[in-house]
Amino acid sequence: MRSEVGAANKLLKAGGALGGAVVGAVTAVGIVTVLEGFWARERLHPAAPITTKAPSGTFGDDLPGDPVKLAMFGDSLAVGVGADGPDGSVAVMLARGLSKESGRPVHLYNQAVIGCESRGLPAQVSALGALGVKPDVAVIVVGGNDLMHLQRTGPAVQFLSEAVRTLRMLGCEVVVATCPDMGTIRPFIQPLRIFAHWLSRLLAAAQTIVVLRAGGRTVSLADTLGPIFRRDPSAMFSADGLHPSSQGYARAAEVILPSLCAASGVWTHKRAFVPHRVYNEERGQFLAWLAFRASRHAGTEVSAEEHKHGVRIVSMGRRTLGRLRHRPSHGRRAR
């Protein structure tokens, strides 16, 4: 009997020691991650104010027809910080690409603001409305600053949902480029890089859910561009190590343009079936569950049949997201 009690005590002591070691390791990793975060923010903070202006204007003005009104909303990525000039920004590349595909002029209204978080989107939409402009199609690029400033996912996606719904009520088609993979940022080191990568996936998944519910389309920058930026950072990032270079913006424009053309009605039939990439790995089930929890107050459920409306979802865990469908778009398309 005494031997059994002694063995049990030894087992409890070993378990306690192991538990203490695990807690200590987790605490240490957490402290290191926080310290790395502060260090990275200091390193990435610009030494001088960024003066890049959001490019706007008409592209393809020698083409026939009324201009397609394209609105751009979001943060410094939508402005084009890091590009060699306006021509190297994603907004200008998208405007020119849409003009070429549609055979019509495109007037770009860029309301993006450097440093914008998701909570700033409704104000950008209102600012364009105050100018009396009703865009035909809009592109939103947002999410990076929400992570950099450690904003909660739930409120962030609620602001995004509000902006998308407001635009849809105006008859505007909406394409949202979800949060890029912040784990690819060069100054980030482990374990901060893994933490940033995971949070980027979570926010992007929650953004996808609320945007589809609100009647918009999504493009996953993390899923499509993350591996490219991770493989060739010297070419994809600008000198600041945070924003894309002109080459990086060109790759982003290549990814966003198909969804923009499909949303605006330029691409029809089979070409209009552009997938909403989320995170196509079954191991993403837990991430999907967290994303649904974060987005549960940001919109209502939708159930329209996906293939009738030009939408195909590549899910992160098919059982979790496989039944999420896209609401039919009743807004005015650019024709």
From TrEMBL:
Pfam families: Lipase_GDSL_2. Residues 73-251 form the SGNH hydrolase-type esterase domain. It comes from the Bacteria. Signal peptide: none annotated. InterPro entries: Ester_Hydrolysis_Enzymes, SGNH_hydro, SGNH_hydro_sf. The keyword Secreted does not apply. The keyword Transport does not apply. GO terms for molecular function: phosphatidylcholine lysophospholipase activity. The chain crosses the membrane at residues 12-35. Keywords: Membrane, Transmembrane, Transmembrane helix. This is Lysophospholipase L1-like esterase. It comes from Spelaeicoccus albus.
